[in-house]
Amino acid sequence: MRRLMYEAQRALASPVRNPRMATVIGRLLGAAFLICFGTGLYSHFLQNPLPGMHFATRPAYLYQFTQGLHIIAGIACFPLLLAKLYIVFPALFAWPPVKGFLNFLERATIALFVGASLVQITIGLLNTYQWYPWPFPFRQVHFALGWVLIGLLAIHIGVKLPLITRYWRKAADGSEPDHLAEAAHPDRSKNPEEVRLWGTTRPGGITGRLLDYIDATPQKTKRVSRRGFLTTVAVSVTAVVGLTAGQTFAPLDAANVFGPRKKGVGQQGVPVNRTSKQAKVADAAMATDWALTLVYAGTETTFSRAELQAMPQTEVRLPIACVEGWSQMATWRGVRMMDLADVVGAEAETSFRLISLEERGSFSKTQMGYEYVRDPLTLVALELNGETLDLEHGYPARMIAPGRPGVLQTKWLSRIEAISA
Protein backbone atom coordinates (compact mmCIF):
# COMPACT_ATOMS: atom_id res chain seq x y z
CA MET A 1 0.00 0.00 0.00
CA ARG A 2 2.81 2.38 0.84
CA ARG A 3 4.35 1.76 -2.57
CA LEU A 4 1.06 2.43 -4.34
CA MET A 5 0.47 5.63 -2.38
CA TYR A 6 3.94 6.87 -3.27
CA GLU A 7 3.43 6.17 -6.96
CA ALA A 8 -0.01 7.79 -6.88
CA GLN A 9 1.49 10.98 -5.46
CA ARG A 10 4.16 10.92 -8.16
CA ALA A 11 1.54 10.46 -10.86
CA LEU A 12 -0.51 13.38 -9.54
CA ALA A 13 2.44 15.75 -9.25
CA SER A 14 1.94 18.99 -11.18
CA PRO A 15 3.40 22.51 -11.30
CA VAL A 16 0.21 23.84 -9.68
CA ARG A 17 0.13 21.33 -6.82
CA ASN A 18 2.40 23.03 -4.31
CA PRO A 19 2.10 25.02 -1.07
CA ARG A 20 2.47 28.38 -2.82
CA MET A 21 -0.53 27.77 -5.11
CA ALA A 22 -2.54 26.33 -2.21
CA THR A 23 -1.87 29.55 -0.29
CA VAL A 24 -2.86 31.77 -3.23
CA ILE A 25 -6.19 30.01 -3.81
CA GLY A 26 -6.71 29.49 -0.08
CA ARG A 27 -6.59 33.18 0.76
CA LEU A 28 -9.12 33.95 -2.01
CA LEU A 29 -11.41 31.22 -0.70
CA GLY A 30 -10.93 32.43 2.87
CA ALA A 31 -11.83 35.98 1.85
CA ALA A 32 -14.99 34.73 0.13
CA PHE A 33 -16.03 32.79 3.24
CA LEU A 34 -15.39 35.80 5.49
CA ILE A 35 -17.47 38.05 3.21
CA CYS A 36 -20.29 35.50 3.27
CA PHE A 37 -20.08 35.22 7.05
CA GLY A 38 -20.06 38.98 7.69
CA THR A 39 -22.89 39.82 5.29
CA GLY A 40 -24.81 36.75 6.48
CA LEU A 41 -24.61 37.91 10.10
CA TYR A 42 -25.87 41.34 9.07
CA SER A 43 -28.83 39.80 7.25
CA HIS A 44 -29.59 37.46 10.15
CA PHE A 45 -29.67 40.18 12.79
CA LEU A 46 -31.76 42.45 10.58
CA GLN A 47 -34.35 39.68 10.56
CA ASN A 48 -33.79 38.56 14.16
CA PRO A 49 -32.50 41.59 16.08
CA LEU A 50 -31.21 41.16 19.60
CA PRO A 51 -32.55 43.51 22.29
CA GLY A 52 -31.10 46.98 21.87
CA MET A 53 -29.95 46.44 18.28
CA HIS A 54 -30.49 49.29 15.81
CA PHE A 55 -29.44 49.55 12.19
CA ALA A 56 -28.42 52.13 9.61
CA THR A 57 -31.14 53.25 7.22
CA ARG A 58 -28.70 54.90 4.81
CA PRO A 59 -27.68 54.39 2.15
CA ALA A 60 -31.13 53.18 1.11
CA TYR A 61 -29.57 50.44 -1.03
CA LEU A 62 -27.42 49.10 1.84
CA TYR A 63 -29.12 45.71 2.13
CA GLN A 64 -29.34 45.42 -1.64
CA PHE A 65 -25.54 45.71 -1.72
CA THR A 66 -24.68 43.51 1.27
CA GLN A 67 -27.01 40.65 0.36
CA GLY A 68 -26.04 40.81 -3.30
CA LEU A 69 -22.41 40.59 -2.19
CA HIS A 70 -23.31 37.65 0.07
CA ILE A 71 -24.77 35.64 -2.81
CA ILE A 72 -21.99 36.57 -5.24
CA ALA A 73 -19.25 35.57 -2.78
CA GLY A 74 -21.08 32.31 -2.06
CA ILE A 75 -21.31 31.47 -5.76
CA ALA A 76 -17.62 32.30 -6.23
CA CYS A 77 -16.80 29.72 -3.54
CA PHE A 78 -17.71 26.88 -5.92
CA PRO A 79 -14.82 27.23 -8.39
CA LEU A 80 -12.44 28.40 -5.66
CA LEU A 81 -13.17 25.41 -3.44
CA LEU A 82 -12.83 22.99 -6.36
CA ALA A 83 -9.52 24.62 -7.30
CA LYS A 84 -8.22 24.25 -3.75
CA LEU A 85 -9.26 20.59 -3.66
CA TYR A 86 -7.52 19.99 -6.98
CA ILE A 87 -4.28 21.42 -5.59
CA VAL A 88 -4.24 19.41 -2.36
CA PHE A 89 -5.69 16.19 -3.83
CA PRO A 90 -2.34 14.27 -3.76
CA ALA A 91 -2.25 14.73 0.03
CA LEU A 92 -5.01 12.11 0.23
CA PHE A 93 -2.43 9.50 -0.74
CA ALA A 94 -0.02 10.28 2.08
CA TRP A 95 1.28 7.19 3.89
CA PRO A 96 0.72 6.49 6.66
CA PRO A 97 -2.69 8.24 6.49
CA VAL A 98 -2.34 9.40 10.11
CA LYS A 99 1.02 10.18 11.67
CA GLY A 100 -0.16 10.93 15.19
CA PHE A 101 -2.96 12.46 17.21
CA LEU A 102 -2.31 16.05 16.08
CA ASN A 103 -2.12 14.94 12.47
CA PHE A 104 -5.43 13.09 12.96
CA LEU A 105 -7.07 16.25 14.32
CA GLU A 106 -5.71 18.25 11.40
CA ARG A 107 -7.02 15.83 8.77
CA ALA A 108 -10.35 15.44 10.59
CA THR A 109 -10.96 19.19 10.75
CA ILE A 110 -10.06 19.55 7.08
CA ALA A 111 -12.51 16.79 6.16
CA LEU A 112 -15.24 18.45 8.23
CA PHE A 113 -14.43 21.85 6.73
CA VAL A 114 -14.64 20.58 3.15
CA GLY A 115 -17.86 18.65 3.83
CA ALA A 116 -19.54 21.53 5.67
CA SER A 117 -18.41 23.98 2.98
CA LEU A 118 -19.95 21.92 0.19
CA VAL A 119 -23.21 21.57 2.10
CA GLN A 120 -23.31 25.28 3.00
CA ILE A 121 -22.73 26.70 -0.46
CA THR A 122 -25.01 24.11 -2.09
CA ILE A 123 -28.02 24.75 0.14
CA GLY A 124 -27.34 28.49 -0.16
CA LEU A 125 -27.46 28.26 -3.94
CA LEU A 126 -30.64 26.18 -3.90
CA ASN A 127 -32.22 28.72 -1.55
CA THR A 128 -31.85 31.38 -4.24
CA TYR A 129 -34.16 29.21 -6.34
CA GLN A 130 -36.46 28.59 -3.35
CA TRP A 131 -35.98 24.84 -3.74
CA TYR A 132 -35.61 22.90 -0.50
CA PRO A 133 -35.14 19.13 -1.14
CA TRP A 134 -34.16 18.41 2.47
CA PRO A 135 -36.04 17.79 5.72
CA PHE A 136 -34.36 20.46 7.88
CA PRO A 137 -35.19 24.20 8.17
CA PHE A 138 -32.89 26.15 5.86
CA ARG A 139 -32.42 29.41 7.78
CA GLN A 140 -31.49 27.82 11.10
CA VAL A 141 -29.12 25.25 9.58
CA HIS A 142 -27.49 27.80 7.24
CA PHE A 143 -26.86 30.14 10.16
CA ALA A 144 -25.45 27.41 12.40
CA LEU A 145 -23.22 26.04 9.64
CA GLY A 146 -21.81 29.53 9.13
CA TRP A 147 -20.46 29.52 12.68
CA VAL A 148 -19.17 25.96 12.30
CA LEU A 149 -17.31 26.89 9.11
CA ILE A 150 -15.71 29.97 10.61
CA GLY A 151 -14.56 27.91 13.60
CA LEU A 152 -13.09 25.20 11.36
CA LEU A 153 -11.49 27.85 9.15
CA ALA A 154 -9.82 29.42 12.19
CA ILE A 155 -8.49 26.01 13.29
CA HIS A 156 -7.22 25.24 9.79
CA ILE A 157 -5.44 28.60 9.52
CA GLY A 158 -3.93 28.11 12.96
CA VAL A 159 -2.58 24.67 12.05
CA LYS A 160 -1.25 25.78 8.66
CA LEU A 161 -0.06 29.23 9.75
CA PRO A 162 3.69 28.46 9.47
CA LEU A 163 3.18 27.16 5.92
CA ILE A 164 0.86 30.05 5.00
CA THR A 165 3.35 32.59 6.32
CA ARG A 166 6.18 30.96 4.40
CA TYR A 167 4.37 30.96 1.06
CA TRP A 168 2.19 34.07 1.42
CA ARG A 169 4.47 36.03 -0.90
CA LYS A 170 6.23 34.88 -4.01
CA ALA A 171 10.03 34.67 -3.89
CA ALA A 172 11.74 37.94 -4.75
CA ASP A 173 13.25 36.45 -7.93
CA GLY A 174 9.96 34.80 -8.91
CA SER A 175 11.42 31.30 -8.60
CA GLU A 176 10.18 28.26 -6.70
CA PRO A 177 11.97 26.68 -3.77
CA ASP A 178 13.83 23.57 -4.91
CA HIS A 179 11.54 21.12 -3.13
CA LEU A 180 8.48 22.57 -4.87
CA ALA A 181 10.06 22.20 -8.27
CA GLU A 182 10.96 18.59 -7.44
CA ALA A 183 7.39 17.83 -6.37
CA ALA A 184 6.05 19.33 -9.59
CA HIS A 185 8.53 17.54 -11.86
CA PRO A 186 9.64 14.29 -10.16
CA ASP A 187 12.40 12.28 -11.79
CA ARG A 188 12.57 8.61 -10.78
CA SER A 189 16.20 8.21 -11.77
CA LYS A 190 17.23 10.88 -9.27
CA ASN A 191 14.78 10.01 -6.50
CA PRO A 192 16.33 8.06 -3.61
CA GLU A 193 12.88 7.20 -2.24
CA GLU A 194 12.19 5.27 -5.46
CA VAL A 195 15.33 3.17 -5.05
CA ARG A 196 14.56 2.56 -1.37
CA LEU A 197 11.02 1.36 -2.12
CA TRP A 198 11.65 -0.74 -5.22
CA GLY A 199 15.34 -1.54 -5.25
CA THR A 200 16.53 -1.81 -8.86
CA THR A 201 13.41 -3.47 -10.36
CA ARG A 202 9.68 -2.85 -10.43
CA PRO A 203 7.30 -5.51 -9.06
CA GLY A 204 5.35 -7.68 -11.46
CA GLY A 205 1.80 -8.96 -11.44
CA ILE A 206 -1.25 -6.80 -10.73
CA THR A 207 0.78 -4.28 -8.69
CA GLY A 208 3.23 -3.79 -11.54
CA ARG A 209 0.45 -3.31 -14.09
CA LEU A 210 -1.31 -0.83 -11.80
CA LEU A 211 1.90 1.12 -11.39
CA ASP A 212 2.46 1.09 -15.17
CA TYR A 213 -1.04 2.57 -15.56
CA ILE A 214 -0.35 5.22 -12.95
CA ASP A 215 2.94 6.05 -14.68
CA ALA A 216 1.05 6.88 -17.86
CA THR A 217 -0.93 9.70 -16.25
CA PRO A 218 1.69 12.24 -15.12
CA GLN A 219 2.46 13.50 -18.60
CA LYS A 220 -1.12 14.68 -19.02
CA THR A 221 -1.27 16.15 -15.54
CA LYS A 222 1.96 18.09 -15.98
CA ARG A 223 0.55 19.96 -18.96
CA VAL A 224 -1.48 22.11 -16.56
CA SER A 225 0.74 25.17 -16.12
CA ARG A 226 0.42 27.61 -13.27
CA ARG A 227 -0.64 30.36 -15.62
CA GLY A 228 -3.20 28.13 -17.34
CA PHE A 229 -4.58 26.96 -14.00
CA LEU A 230 -4.97 30.47 -12.61
CA THR A 231 -6.56 31.62 -15.88
CA THR A 232 -9.06 28.76 -15.69
CA VAL A 233 -9.94 29.62 -12.10
CA ALA A 234 -10.32 33.33 -12.94
CA VAL A 235 -12.53 32.60 -15.95
CA SER A 236 -14.67 30.19 -13.90
CA VAL A 237 -15.20 32.68 -11.08
CA THR A 238 -15.97 35.46 -13.55
CA ALA A 239 -18.45 33.25 -15.41
CA VAL A 240 -20.44 32.00 -12.42
CA VAL A 241 -20.56 35.48 -10.89
CA GLY A 242 -21.14 37.41 -14.10
CA LEU A 243 -23.99 35.18 -15.23
CA THR A 244 -25.94 35.58 -11.96
CA ALA A 245 -24.99 38.99 -10.50
CA GLY A 246 -27.39 40.75 -12.88
CA GLN A 247 -30.28 39.83 -10.58
CA THR A 248 -28.76 42.29 -8.08
CA PHE A 249 -26.67 44.78 -10.03
CA ALA A 250 -28.45 46.49 -12.92
CA PRO A 251 -25.38 46.96 -15.20
CA LEU A 252 -25.07 43.14 -15.44
CA ASP A 253 -28.78 42.51 -16.04
CA ALA A 254 -28.27 41.58 -19.70
CA ALA A 255 -25.88 38.81 -18.67
CA ASN A 256 -28.21 37.36 -16.02
CA VAL A 257 -28.54 33.84 -17.44
CA PHE A 258 -28.71 31.69 -14.31
CA GLY A 259 -30.19 34.06 -11.71
CA PRO A 260 -33.67 32.95 -10.60
CA ARG A 261 -35.09 36.47 -10.92
CA LYS A 262 -34.93 38.87 -13.86
CA LYS A 263 -35.21 42.63 -13.36
CA GLY A 264 -38.43 44.10 -14.70
CA VAL A 265 -40.19 40.74 -14.92
CA GLY A 266 -43.31 40.49 -12.74
CA GLN A 267 -46.44 42.42 -11.89
CA GLN A 268 -45.85 46.17 -12.29
CA GLY A 269 -42.30 45.47 -13.43
CA VAL A 270 -41.15 44.01 -10.11
CA PRO A 271 -40.49 40.28 -9.41
CA VAL A 272 -42.62 38.48 -6.84
CA ASN A 273 -41.33 36.00 -4.28
CA ARG A 274 -44.39 35.01 -2.28
CA THR A 275 -47.74 35.14 -4.06
CA SER A 276 -51.15 35.92 -2.61
CA LYS A 277 -52.18 32.33 -3.40
CA GLN A 278 -49.28 30.94 -1.37
CA ALA A 279 -50.11 33.30 1.48
CA LYS A 280 -53.87 32.60 1.19
CA VAL A 281 -54.80 36.26 1.59
CA ALA A 282 -56.72 37.09 -1.60
CA ASP A 283 -60.20 37.16 -0.06
CA ALA A 284 -59.17 39.19 3.00
CA ALA A 285 -57.06 41.62 0.98
CA MET A 286 -59.82 42.33 -1.54
CA ALA A 287 -62.57 42.72 1.09
CA THR A 288 -64.35 46.06 0.91
CA ASP A 289 -64.24 46.48 4.69
CA TRP A 290 -60.44 46.17 4.94
CA ALA A 291 -58.88 48.68 7.33
CA LEU A 292 -55.41 49.19 8.74
CA THR A 293 -55.39 49.17 12.55
CA LEU A 294 -52.73 51.16 14.40
CA VAL A 295 -52.33 50.31 18.08
CA TYR A 296 -50.57 52.59 20.55
CA ALA A 297 -50.89 52.89 24.34
CA GLY A 298 -53.84 50.51 24.35
CA THR A 299 -55.81 52.59 21.85
CA GLU A 300 -56.72 51.27 18.39
CA THR A 301 -57.05 53.67 15.47
CA THR A 302 -58.31 52.35 12.15
CA PHE A 303 -57.71 53.74 8.67
CA SER A 304 -59.64 52.66 5.60
CA ARG A 305 -57.78 52.70 2.31
CA ALA A 306 -59.67 55.81 1.27
CA GLU A 307 -58.62 57.54 4.50
CA LEU A 308 -54.98 56.60 3.90
CA GLN A 309 -55.22 57.97 0.36
CA ALA A 310 -56.68 61.23 1.71
CA MET A 311 -53.61 61.80 3.89
CA PRO A 312 -50.49 63.59 2.51
CA GLN A 313 -48.80 61.25 0.03
CA THR A 314 -45.04 60.83 -0.41
CA GLU A 315 -43.22 59.30 -3.36
CA VAL A 316 -39.86 57.54 -2.92
CA ARG A 317 -37.44 55.42 -4.94
CA LEU A 318 -36.47 52.34 -2.96
CA PRO A 319 -35.35 48.81 -3.86
CA ILE A 320 -36.95 45.54 -2.93
CA ALA A 321 -33.91 43.47 -1.91
CA CYS A 322 -34.55 39.83 -1.05
CA VAL A 323 -32.45 37.39 0.93
CA GLU A 324 -32.20 35.20 -2.18
CA GLY A 325 -29.96 37.88 -3.70
CA TRP A 326 -32.21 39.53 -6.26
CA SER A 327 -33.30 43.15 -6.04
CA GLN A 328 -35.33 45.66 -8.01
CA MET A 329 -35.50 49.43 -7.75
CA ALA A 330 -39.05 50.82 -7.86
CA THR A 331 -41.12 53.95 -7.24
CA TRP A 332 -43.46 53.78 -4.25
CA ARG A 333 -46.16 56.20 -3.13
CA GLY A 334 -48.05 56.25 0.14
CA VAL A 335 -48.24 57.61 3.69
CA ARG A 336 -45.06 58.14 5.68
CA MET A 337 -44.89 55.83 8.68
CA MET A 338 -43.70 58.71 10.85
CA ASP A 339 -46.87 60.64 10.01
CA LEU A 340 -49.05 57.72 11.06
CA ALA A 341 -47.04 57.41 14.28
CA ASP A 342 -47.60 61.13 14.94
CA VAL A 343 -51.34 60.79 14.34
CA VAL A 344 -51.61 58.38 17.28
CA GLY A 345 -49.14 60.39 19.40
CA ALA A 346 -46.33 57.81 19.43
CA GLU A 347 -43.07 58.86 21.06
CA ALA A 348 -39.97 59.28 18.89
CA GLU A 349 -38.32 56.04 20.06
CA THR A 350 -41.36 53.80 19.67
CA SER A 351 -40.83 50.60 17.68
CA PHE A 352 -43.70 48.76 16.01
CA ARG A 353 -44.76 45.25 15.13
CA LEU A 354 -46.09 44.78 11.61
CA ILE A 355 -48.80 42.15 11.15
CA SER A 356 -49.89 40.79 7.78
CA LEU A 357 -53.22 39.37 6.68
CA GLU A 358 -51.21 36.20 6.10
CA GLU A 359 -51.98 33.99 9.08
CA ARG A 360 -49.09 31.58 8.63
CA GLY A 361 -45.57 32.23 7.54
CA SER A 362 -42.18 32.96 9.08
CA PHE A 363 -42.58 36.68 8.44
CA SER A 364 -46.32 37.21 8.87
CA LYS A 365 -45.27 39.28 11.91
CA THR A 366 -42.14 41.41 11.81
CA GLN A 367 -40.55 44.08 13.97
CA MET A 368 -39.62 47.59 12.85
CA GLY A 369 -37.21 49.60 14.98
CA TYR A 370 -37.81 53.28 15.61
CA GLU A 371 -34.90 54.19 13.31
CA TYR A 372 -37.01 52.96 10.38
CA VAL A 373 -40.29 54.34 11.75
CA ARG A 374 -38.80 57.84 11.89
CA ASP A 375 -37.06 57.67 8.53
CA PRO A 376 -38.87 59.93 6.01
CA LEU A 377 -38.44 57.27 3.29
CA THR A 378 -40.44 54.64 5.19
CA LEU A 379 -43.96 54.37 3.77
CA VAL A 380 -47.17 52.47 4.12
CA ALA A 381 -47.24 52.10 0.34
CA LEU A 382 -50.47 52.27 -1.63
CA GLU A 383 -49.02 52.59 -5.15
CA LEU A 384 -46.16 51.01 -7.09
CA ASN A 385 -44.60 52.46 -10.23
CA GLY A 386 -47.46 54.90 -10.72
CA GLU A 387 -50.24 52.33 -10.36
CA THR A 388 -52.45 51.03 -7.57
CA LEU A 389 -50.51 48.42 -5.66
CA ASP A 390 -51.05 45.00 -7.22
CA LEU A 391 -52.40 42.21 -5.04
CA GLU A 392 -49.16 40.27 -5.55
CA HIS A 393 -47.18 43.22 -4.22
CA GLY A 394 -49.26 43.64 -1.09
CA TYR A 395 -52.58 45.34 -1.91
CA PRO A 396 -54.30 47.02 -0.15
CA ALA A 397 -51.18 48.33 1.67
CA ARG A 398 -47.65 47.23 2.38
CA MET A 399 -44.59 48.51 4.18
CA ILE A 400 -41.52 49.78 2.34
CA ALA A 401 -38.43 51.09 4.14
CA PRO A 402 -34.78 51.81 3.25
CA GLY A 403 -32.12 49.18 3.94
CA ARG A 404 -34.52 46.38 4.94
CA PRO A 405 -34.70 42.78 3.61
CA GLY A 406 -37.67 42.08 1.37
CA VAL A 407 -39.12 39.63 3.89
CA LEU A 408 -39.46 42.52 6.35
CA GLN A 409 -41.23 44.79 3.83
CA THR A 410 -44.52 43.33 5.05
CA LYS A 411 -47.21 42.84 2.40
CA TRP A 412 -50.99 42.78 2.94
CA LEU A 413 -50.78 44.89 6.08
CA SER A 414 -53.48 44.36 8.69
CA ARG A 415 -52.21 45.81 11.98
CA ILE A 416 -49.31 47.95 13.21
CA GLU A 417 -48.79 47.62 16.96
CA ALA A 418 -46.48 49.63 19.20
CA ILE A 419 -43.92 47.52 21.06
CA SER A 420 -43.50 48.26 24.72
CA ALA A 421 -39.97 49.43 25.59
TrEMBL record:
Q: Where is the composition biased (Basic and acidic residues)?
A: 178-196
Its Gene Ontology biological processes? Answer: respiratory electron transport chain
Asked if the keyword Cytoplasm belongs to this entry, the reply reads: no
Q: What InterPro entries is this protein classified in?
A: Di-haem_cyt_TM, Mopterin_OxRdtase_euk, OxRdtase_Mopterin-bd_dom, OxRdtase_Mopterin-bd_sf
Annotated Gene Ontology cellular component terms: plasma membrane
Transmembrane domains' residue ranges: 21-45, 65-89, 110-132, 144-163, 229-250
Q: Which SUPFAM superfamilies match?
A: Oxidoreductase molybdopterin-binding domain, Transmembrane di-heme cytochromes
Domain named Oxidoreductase molybdopterin-binding is located at 287-419
Identify the stretch(es) annotated as Disordered.
Answer: 178-197
Task: Report keywords, A-Z.
Answer: Membrane, Transmembrane, Transmembrane helix
- Please identify the protein, giving its name as recorded: Molybdopterin-binding protein
Record organism: Cryobacterium roopkundense
